[in-house]
Amino acid sequence: MAWSTAQLARMSGVTSRTLRHYDEIGLLPPARVGGNGLRYYEQGQLLRLQQILLLRELGLGLDVIARIVNDGGSRVEHLRRHHRWLAAERDRLDLLADTVARTIEELEAGEDVSTEQLFDGFDAQRQARYEQELTERYGERVAPHIEESKQRMAGWTTGKSARVQQEWAGFVRRLVELIEAGAPVEDPRVQAVVADHYRWVTNFWTPDRDSYPGLGQLYADAPDFRAQFDAQHPRLAEFLRDAMAVYARSSL
User: Fold this and answer.
1) Which of 199, 234, 236, 243 is the most buried (most CB within 10 A)?
2) What pLDDT digit, counting tens, does each position of 97-137 carry?
3) Considering only CA atoms, which of 198, 206, 182 is closest in space to residue 244?
4) DSSP of 69-85, one letter per residue?
5) What total of structural domains would you count in the chain?
6) Does 234 or 117 have the greater pLDDT score?
7) Same domain, 28 and 133
8) Angle in degrees, 0-180, between the axes of helices 75-108 and 223-232, rounded to the nearest 10
9) What's the mean pLDDT in 143-158?
10) What CA–CA distance (Å, rounded) separates 102 from 117?
11) Which residue has the higher pLDDT, 15 or 163?
12) Whole-angstrom distance, CA of residue 95 vs CA of residue 75
């Protein structure tokens, strides 16, 4: 069965103009073009459009989406990975909602806020998920780091978690300034930031010459990471990835 551009637009909620644009940039070519010039889409294109829309919902740009959907991997494996991201994000947001709800209740009741629960859902769960993704991408050789990370974070106080989060924001701000100043990834100023980032990562686990660049690639590819980076600067994800690769070659 085939659907025209107009039919697909009605089904998906994507405008015909957007579908034509996706075709023009090679993101969603139709299955065929009729003699009258109309584009027709089949099930494979519908599944591809679903993936594109999902990745857009996760905050990725069209250039990143194109790399993901064109990488030749299994569509089912891609969907499984997206499902894991969505399920984990749902659980994290549920926990954050519960945290805020408890804080509202305590404040309205005039009670002291439970400081040990004040930051539930903000940090550790997401980091563990990133490291799991790293293992799935690069093999079991990095799997021991997940357990190492869990053991290290188990003893963290709320203050420690907050400091780690603040340090992350500092790396992002410094790198954006260097990007806008035109510094290349090999610049000593950039590498100094990356050295600080490497030491920061050791709060969770200790990457080696192979796994540290792999983490950089994960930063560029994972939708939730990518959305964070793109919100700060459109070149930040690739810039950090490339700078981490340089650091690994020269210092690890």
Assistant:
1) 243
2) 676 676 666 666 665 544 444 444 444 455 555 555 655 65
3) 198
4) HTS---HHHHHHHHHHH
5) 2
6) 234
7) no
8) 70
9) 62
10) 9
11) 15
12) 30
Contact (Cβ atoms closer than 8 angstroms) between residue 33 and residue 39? yes
70: left (phi over 0), alpha (psi -120 to 50) or beta: alpha
State how far the Cα of 33 lies from the Cα of 37, in Å rounded to an integer.
6
Between residues 96 and 76, the one the model is more confident about:
76
Whether residues 214 and 106 fall in one domain? yes
Cα–Cα nearest to 4, from 14, 16, 13 = 16
CA angle 195, 129, 201 (to 5 degrees): 15
The helix (run of H) or strand (run of E) holding residue 29 is none
Same domain, 146 and 227: yes
Element (H, E) at 175: helix 158-180
β pairing state of 32-33 and 39-41: antiparallel
The single-letter code of the amino acid at 228 is: Q
SS3 (DSSP) at 39: strand
Q: Domain containing 178: what range? A: 75-251
Residues 55, 224: Cα–Cα separation, whole Å: 10
pTM of the predicted model, to two decimals? Answer: 0.48
Cα–Cα distance between 102 and 238 in angstroms, integer?
A: 39
Same domain membership, residue 85 and residue 13: no
**DSSP class per residue in 107-147:** HHTTPPP-GGGTTTTSSHHHHHHHHHHHHHHH-GGGHHHHH
